[in-house]
Known about the structure:
single chain; alpha+beta; 283 residues; twelve-stranded mixed β-sheet; 12 strands
Amino acid sequence: MNYKRCSEVDKPLIHQAFLSGYADYAIPMNITLEPFFERFFGSEGNTLEDSFIAFQNNEPVGLILGGIRTFDRFKNLRCGTLCVTPEYRGEGVSQALFHLFVQNGINQQCDRLSLEVLSDNDRAIRFYEKQGYKKYHTISYFSKSVDDNQLKHTIVEHITIKEVDLSVAEGVRKAILSTHINWQNELEYFMQDHTAHCFAAYLDKQIVGALVITDAGKIYFLYVSEDEREKGIARNLLAHAINERNLKKLTISMPNNIDMAEFLRKLGFMKANIEQYEMYKMV
């Protein structure tokens, strides 16, 4: 078996390793070359230099993607994916790739390693726990059709809602950095999404709420100042976005440290069966 950094190989080989590694995955991964690189080496935050690939007889049979950025105020190396072609599992490929991944984090003086894993993937969870990772947060997923027109504007005295630049949401997020948000909802992620829009709620001239949502209805960020909650501001932000962007469906993911589930339930959101664990290892 031969191992290389992804920066040392041609991109189609990386894509091939990904597709073969997820050939039997519960969620179909039929993604073509360009969208694959746009997603996994764009907003996902992986880099070729921090990722590794395994070869057997010049055929790609394993892949680990990684990327470093500040996350929860740590210098964090995240594992964006780890996969091995089915017929080569159980032969130590995962362990070898993971060793290269962890050593790379140590060499770059990272404070923490992180990853997400499906909560029912017992085999993967056991593997990561053997590598020293621990489960910290559970990410839940919710969705709602808006064809029923349930979300309507209500009058909230002195509140004005308007579409603004994404930098407004960036400022709101930076003001609450102690609140943990999952990797895929962080500002580094939504700031790179050209389909994302920001809607802000103002009390006179002071911002009291912000929503970041895509043209497909994916909610990245929804926040209302503590003193202004339970007044209908979050509901109105969503209603405004639905009307302005002509949205037909809303989706949102969030870790269990954020207390929003009851709010979503009242609006008619349905919780998906799928969940993920966020797992961390201190270096």
